[in-house]
């Protein structure tokens, strides 16, 4: 609120001076203009948080300025001030989005309370818009998915990208750790510089040092020429060390020194070289367990583990699996010249229910298998490869899953199942209490996994979060 910008549109100089002094004493930054044209120009240059708008201006009616702000959706709270008040005028001003309507003369307290409330309302509206935009963010630098767990990952990437701090990415195989590293790079100021990735588990340990730092001619058998390593190639950009826990202890010591000093020597070389790069690393193991078991240096762990990012497994990402599967289906159908457009509902159910131990990589392979071996407009259950076809055969009945057409109805149906009708009358209990008990029982049955509980209840996880917040706010938690 302090230093919020206020544009005062008032053509009476004496009143403008008085109002401006009120606002400046309260630590607002004030700009005063006397005409509508000047007001429109000031709003275009930099939208103030609040516009105090007199309607009777020498060159136009202030209502035209209000209509402009409303029509252009400028993030500004407009407070109309006038000495010629009427109900019709107030209604028209509110219809065009005015935050408040203040009648002259007014006291300093009335003005300051109105402006402070307008600033706070604008701040809250922007927070809501930001949150809504985040929830709607279904694609993000190579990621697909709008689930709550992935929104948390996107926010960490947004926050960490601008820093030089090392990011340690963890997650099961196939969850997209390299995609995450590339997202951090592409979101960072280094995005126009190189992104160099090395898989520490795919390169023989005797060649790993050369791969990172390079070598000089003749330093070992087969070194027939000088070679730049990944560190030099990533200068100015980002070096991504995937499966970092596979690195041998001797090389971990050299990597630690490199991170601390930014300098290195090529294998067989004597010249010290310096680079400016950011290091990102990833592992599908538990790094602390690797430290405890003596396979990973503790000092290197704490040097690398500055900003942790954990990628959730696909089974915990709500309905992201369907969004990802549809994207793969579209891409591979176009690539293979096939006619696939959609999944049969039974197939969508299998995709939701399957555990996906291989995560997104396994899903990718399944969809490619279907597209390569079959054709048609719709993917049917008969087209699914093993083990998904076996999983389908084991389903005794359709599971209760979230359907977009209804949110509340499946909850009521599940509550009826949870509380079967018994002979004789039962006490009637409040519906919110019955619903709350059903949701809490589902969460407990799923070991606290809210997305899984929501799927069993036939609702979305966001519905559970929203209801729990409402119960807490009402003192019913």
UniProtKB/TrEMBL annotation:
Keywords: Activator, ATP-binding, DNA-binding, Nucleotide-binding, Phosphoprotein, Transcription, Transcription regulation, Two-component regulatory system. GO terms for biological process: phosphorelay signal transduction system; regulation of DNA-templated transcription. Pfam families: AAA_lid_14, HTH_8, Response_reg, Sigma54_activat. Gene3D superfamilies: 1.10.8.60, 3.40.50.2300, Homeodomain-like, P-loop containing nucleotide triphosphate hydrolases. InterPro entries: AAA+_ATPase (IPR003593), AAA_lid_NorR (IPR058031), CheY-like_superfamily (IPR011006), Homeodomain-like_sf (IPR009057), HTH_Fis (IPR002197), P-loop_NTPase (IPR027417), Sig_transdc_resp-reg_receiver (IPR001789), Sigma_54_int (IPR002078). PROSITE patterns: RESPONSE_REGULATORY, SIGMA54_INTERACT_2, SIGMA54_INTERACT_3, SIGMA54_INTERACT_4. Residues 143-372 form the Sigma-54 factor interaction domain. One of its GO terms (molecular function) is ATP binding. The modification 4-aspartylphosphate is found at residue 54. SMART domains: AAA (SM00382), REC (SM00448). Residues 5-119 form the Response regulatory domain. This is ATPase AAA. It comes from Skermanella stibiiresistens SB22.
């Amino acid at each position: 609120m302090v230093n919020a910008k206020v544009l005062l549109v008032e053509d009476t100089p004496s009143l403008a001076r008085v109002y401006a002094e009120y606002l400046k004493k309260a630590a607002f930054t004030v700009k005063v203009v006397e005409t509508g044209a000047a007001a429109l120009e000031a709003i275009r240059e930099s939208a103030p948080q609040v516009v105090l708008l007199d309607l009777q201006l020498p060159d136009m009616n202030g209502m035209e300025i209000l209509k402009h702000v409303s029509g252009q959706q400028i993030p500004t709270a407009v407070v109309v001030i006038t000495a010629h008040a009427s109900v019709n005028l107030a209604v028209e001003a509110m219809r065009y989005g005015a935050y408040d309507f203040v009648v002259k003369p007014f006291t300093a307290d009335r003005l300051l309370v109105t402006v402070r409330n307008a600033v706070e309302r604008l701040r809250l509206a922007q927070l809501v818009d930001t949150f809504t935009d985040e929830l709607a963010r279904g694609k993000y630098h190579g990621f697909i998915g709008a689930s709550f767990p992935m929104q948390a990952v996107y926010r960490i990437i947004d926050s960490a990208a601008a820093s030089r701090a090392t990011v340690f990415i963890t997650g099961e195989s196939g969850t997209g750790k390299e995609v995450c590293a590339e997202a951090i790079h592409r979101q960072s100021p280094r995005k126009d510089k190189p992104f160099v990735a090395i898989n520490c588990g795919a390169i023989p340990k005797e060649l790993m040092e050369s791969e990172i730092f390079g070598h000089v001619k003749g330093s070992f058998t087969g070194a027939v020429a000088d070679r730049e390593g990944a560190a030099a190639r990533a200068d100015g950009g980002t070096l991504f060390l995937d499966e970092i826990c596979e690195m041998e202890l001797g090389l971990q010591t050299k990597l630690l020194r490199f991170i601390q000093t930014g300098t290195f020597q090529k294998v067989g070389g004597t010249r010290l070289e310096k680079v400016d790069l950011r290091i990102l690393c990833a592992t599908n193991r538990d790094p602390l367990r690797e430290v405890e078991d003596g396979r990973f240096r503790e000092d290197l762990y704490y040097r690398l583990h500055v900003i942790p990012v954990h990628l959730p497994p696909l089974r915990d990402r709500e309905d992201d699996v369907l969004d990802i599967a549809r994207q793969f289906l579209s891409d591979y159908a176009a690539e293979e010249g096939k006619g696939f457009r959609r999944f049969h509902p039974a197939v969508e159910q299998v995709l939701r229910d399957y555990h996906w131990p291989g995560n997104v990589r396994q899903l990718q392979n399944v969809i490619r298998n279907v597209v390569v071996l079959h054709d048609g407009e719709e993917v049917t259950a008969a087209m699914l490869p093993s083990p998904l076809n076996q999983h389908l055969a084991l389903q005794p009945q359709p599971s209760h899953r979230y359907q977009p057409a209804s949110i509340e109805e499946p909850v009521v149906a599940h509550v009826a199942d949870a509380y079967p009708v018994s002979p004789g009358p039962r006490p009637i209990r409040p519906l919110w209490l019955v619903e709350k008990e059903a949701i809490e029982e589902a969460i407990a049955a799923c070991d606290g996994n809210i997305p899984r509980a929501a799927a069993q209840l036939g609702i979305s996880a966001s519905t559970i979060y929203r209801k729990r917040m409402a119960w807490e706010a009402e003192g019913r938690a």
